[in-house]
């Protein structure tokens, strides 16, 4: 087995008095597609937000490849320099629940802005890549539209293209379909399904779409109260969960989904 | 004959008023952006200095500041001519109010936009210049328009540090003619017209900026 | 010597301490002018905003124009106008009163906007309910609309009160003996403006900060649902 790409070791994360991650241990192999499920507030989104450097954590260590989220001489976890954080972020991309496209930029510019400004790509190369990605998400004809002119599903597909344009090693999906009308969920899941076939891309997905999770994941982790209570292949977790909390959770969501 | 003569003198004063208003508004806008950004983006020390500047400038009367610059500052060895004193006083004053507008604008940009920018690995500087400011600068313009008119009215106080602006000329004429009603009515009308023109210019700029930005507003997601 | 206090120019600190009581007397005048001016602004602004809501087009339009004119012209000129023109028509007022009128006039333009926003924010259903009860327009305003408006407009009104306080030094140019005028007079006699003007420049932010604290306290006390006027 390869060394893991991502490794959380005894990570504690608190918001004031509230413990969100409690001595959290978690490792992800390169290219692995992992789905995080669990009740809301169980800490699964926090895992993604910590990886994206949107949240600090209090104790423990986190590594991404050979980079630590602590800087060697940084004071305490996450008190890293801006440069160190930007080195970390080079590896990670994120797709948000609320899409978060830049409203003042066209679809194409939303995608090429970061490759040009951050990766120093030439504009024509960035645009060629952007158009390729827009074809992938099926929105080539929307390149000159503004986000406000798109449906939620289309905005989310652009957001996925925008994240992919940075060629991340790890792509994080934070409930990417939760803000969508039910009839728009399918198109976004379709795009994620396509990406799941990319061999080199490591994917972490937080979602309530259990059937989809079962279909694309290599591994499913069930979260409760800041810890992974149970994990395994989708087949095992969904067909024969061992922990009572997992059984209870799956029963409630699966009856809800019909 | 007297009307023509009075109008000619008042118009000369109005020219000075206009020049002072324009220069101090532009300088004030520059201060507003620097201090407003420092307030939001600066480290703990810089943000606190910006806060102190804003609160102190907004807490003291403009006339007191002008007199201080004009009468007190020379006593600690810094002598400015009246015109410079007026410009400095007005700019420092209106810049503090503008900084609050910039701060409010920047803070109105949803946090998720900044998170998205961070996820794409934009530098803080790039995020400020290309993501947050462009989204909010148009929304700041009506408030800036009001401040520009406020600043125009405030320029009347520079007559008290012997700048020959519209108010100064009005006082001169009144002392000669003693026809207070006519002189002050003309003067009030002069300021009113300038304020209307200024408002119209600001609205035109806002309109152009909205057109230039080309993105429909108020529809985020 | 002024108001019976002598200046001690032996050191800057002694000088500052010796003139503080004089400035304190000016501060009282400053506060009186601000309070009186703001009460006038509250009354006149309410009048403007009611006139602007008049069903007679000429009245509402005329009121809107007057408010716009007042708002777009400098306080200083309005002050000169009242100070020099009124006596020509036989109205002779003390300088302090003229100053209060000018402050109130200028700020009535601002307060009328605040009232307007407050009235517009009262839900249409409240008007309809009051009309359905066959209340007169006067009673609708006094018993239904204005009471509900008060907690909404209090913060904005408070901010304008603080702004007005900071404009009172302008009254010194028409001989009102406010804090700034006294500071200048002290400077004229001692040829030392730095200390008196700096003191005035420090006293104002202290006062405005205190006022802001008071306004926040007031906002907390006011019931959100409204304040009955009777």
In short:
Chain B has eight helices and no strands. Chain B is mostly helical and 221 residues long. Chain C has 230 residues and is mainly alpha-helical.
Present the secondary structure layout.
The complex is a heterotrimer of chains A (258), B (221) and C (230).
Chain A: E1 6-15, E2 18-28, E3 33-37, H1 44-51, E4 59-64, E5 67-68, H2 82-89, E6 92-95, H3 107-117, H4 123-136, H5 152-164, E7 170-174, H6 182-196, E8 202-206, H7 210-216, E9 219-224, E10 227-232, H8 234-239, H9 244-257
Parallel strand pairs in A: 3-8, 3-9, 6-7, 7-8
Antiparallel strand pairs in A: 1-2, 1-4, 4-5, 9-10
Helix pairs in contact in A: 3-4, 3-5, 4-5, 5-6
Chain B: H1 2-41, H2 44-59, H3 62-72, H4 82-108, H5 111-119, H6 124-154, H7 166-177, H8 180-213
Helix pairs in contact in B: 1-2, 1-4, 1-6, 1-7, 1-8, 2-4, 3-4, 4-6, 5-6, 6-8, 7-8
Chain C: H1 12-52, H2 57-71, H3 75-88, H4 95-121, H5 124-132, H6 137-167, H7 179-190, H8 194-221
Outline the structure in words.
The complex is a heterotrimer of chains A (258), B (221) and C (230). Chain A has 258 residues and is of the alpha/beta class. Chain A has helices spanning 44-51, 82-89, 107-117, 123-136, 152-164, 182-196, 210-216, 234-239, 244-257, and strands at 6-15, 18-28, 33-37, 59-64, 67-68, 92-95, 170-174, 202-206, 219-224, 227-232. Chain A has nine helices and ten strands. In chain A, the strands form two sheets. In chain A, strands 6-7-8-3-9-10 form a six-stranded mixed sheet, with helices on both faces. Chain A has a four-stranded antiparallel sheet with strand order 2-1-4-5, covered by helices on one side. In chain A, strand 9 and strand 10 form a beta hairpin. In chain A, helix 4 (123-136) packs across helix 5 (152-164). Chain B has a single domain, classed as Orthogonal Bundle (MetI-like fold). Chain B is 81% helix and 0% strand. Chain C has a single domain (12-221), classed as MetI-like (MetI-like fold, Orthogonal Bundle). With 230 residues, chain C is mostly helical. The N and C termini of chain C lie far apart (51 Å). Chains B and C meet through helix 2, helix 3, helix 6, helix 7 and helix 8 of B and helix 3, helix 7 and helix 8 of C.
């Amino acid at each position: 087995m390869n060394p893991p790409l991502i490794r959380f070791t005894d990570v504690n994360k608190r918001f004031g008095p509230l413990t969100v991650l409690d001595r959290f241990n978690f490792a992800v192999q390169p290219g692995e597609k992992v789905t995080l499920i669990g009740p809301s507030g169980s800490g699964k989104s926090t895992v993604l937000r910590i990886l994206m450097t949107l949240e600090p954590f209090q104790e423990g260590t986190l590594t991404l490849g050979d980079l630590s989220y602590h800087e060697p001489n940084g004071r305490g976890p996450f008190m890293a320099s801006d440069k160190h954080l930007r080195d970390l972020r080079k590896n990670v991309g994120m797709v948000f629940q609320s899409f978060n496209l830049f409203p003042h930029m066209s679809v194409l510019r939303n995608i090429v802005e970061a490759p040009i400004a951050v990766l120093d790509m030439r504009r024509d190369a960035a645009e060629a890549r952007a158009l390729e990605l827009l074809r992938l998400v099926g929105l080539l004809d929307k390149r000159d539209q503004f986000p406000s002119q798109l449906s939620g599903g289309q905005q989310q597909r652009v957001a996925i293209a925008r994240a992919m344009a940075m060629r991340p090693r790890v792509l994080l999906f934070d409930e990417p379909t939760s803000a969508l009308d039910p009839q728009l969920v399918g198109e976004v899941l379709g795009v994620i399904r396509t990406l799941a076939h990319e061999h080199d891309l490591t994917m972490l997905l937080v979602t309530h779409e259990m059937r989809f999770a079962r279909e694309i994941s290599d591994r499913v982790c069930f979260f409760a109260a800041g810890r992974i209570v149970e994990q395994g292949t989708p087949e095992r977790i969904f067909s024969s969960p061992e922990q009572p909390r997992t059984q209870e959770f799956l029963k409630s969501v699966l009856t809800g989904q019909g | 004959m007297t009307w023509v003569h009075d109008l000619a003198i008042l118009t000369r004063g109005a020219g000075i008023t206009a020049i002072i208003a324009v220069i101090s508004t532009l300088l004030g806008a520059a201060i507003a952006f620097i201090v407003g950004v420092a307030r939001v983006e600066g480290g703990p020390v810089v943000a606190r200095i910006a806060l102190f500047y804003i609160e102190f400038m907004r807490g003291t009367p403009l006339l007191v500041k002008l007199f201080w610059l004009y009468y007190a500052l020379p006593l600690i060895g810094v002598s400015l001519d009246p015109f410079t004193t007026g410009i400095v006083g007005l700019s420092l004053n209106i810049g503090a109010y503008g900084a609050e507008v910039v701060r409010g604008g920047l803070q109105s940009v949803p946090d998720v936009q900044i998170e998205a920018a961070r996820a794409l690995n934009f530098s803080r500087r790039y995020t400020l210049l290309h993501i947050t400011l462009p989204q909010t600068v148009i929304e700041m313009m009506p408030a800036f328009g009001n401040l520009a008119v406020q600043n125009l009215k405030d320029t009347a106080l520079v007559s008290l540090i012997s700048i020959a602006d519209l108010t100064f000329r009005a006082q001169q004429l009144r002392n000669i003619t003693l026809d207070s009603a006519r002189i002050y009515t003309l003067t009030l009308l002069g300021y009113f017209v300038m304020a209307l023109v200024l408002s119209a210019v600001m609205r035109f700029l806002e309109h152009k900026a909205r057109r230039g930005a080309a993105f429909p507003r108020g529809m985020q997601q | 010597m002024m108001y019976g206090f002598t200046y001690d120019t032996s050191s800057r600190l002694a000088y500052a301490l010796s003139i503080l009581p004089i400035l304190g007397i000016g501060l009282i005048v400053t506060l009186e002018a601000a309070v009186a001016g703001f009460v006038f602004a509250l009354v006149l602004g309410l009048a403007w905003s009611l006139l602007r809501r008049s069903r007679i087009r000429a009245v509402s339009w005329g009121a809107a124009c007057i408010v716009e004119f007042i708002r777009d012209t400098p306080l200083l000129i309005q002050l000169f106008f009242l100070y020099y023109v009124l006596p020509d028509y036989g109205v002779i007022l003390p300088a302090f009163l003229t100053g209060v009128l000018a402050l109130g006039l200028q700020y009535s333009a601002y307060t009328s906007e605040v009232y307007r926003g407050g009235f517009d924010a009262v839900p249409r259903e409240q008007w309809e309910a009051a009309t359905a009860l066959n209340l007169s327009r006067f009673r609708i305003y006094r018993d239904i609309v204005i009471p509900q408006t008060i907690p909404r407009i209090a913060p904005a009104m408070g901010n304008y009160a603080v702004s007005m306080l900071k404009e009172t030094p302008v009254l010194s140019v028409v001989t009102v003996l406010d804090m700034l005028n006294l500071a200048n007079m002290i400077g004229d006699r001692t040829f030392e403006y730095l200390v008196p003007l700096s003191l005035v420049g420090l006293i104002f932010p202290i006062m405005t900060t205190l006022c802001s604290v008071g306004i926040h306290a007031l906002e907390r006390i006011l019931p959100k649902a409204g304040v009955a006027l009777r």
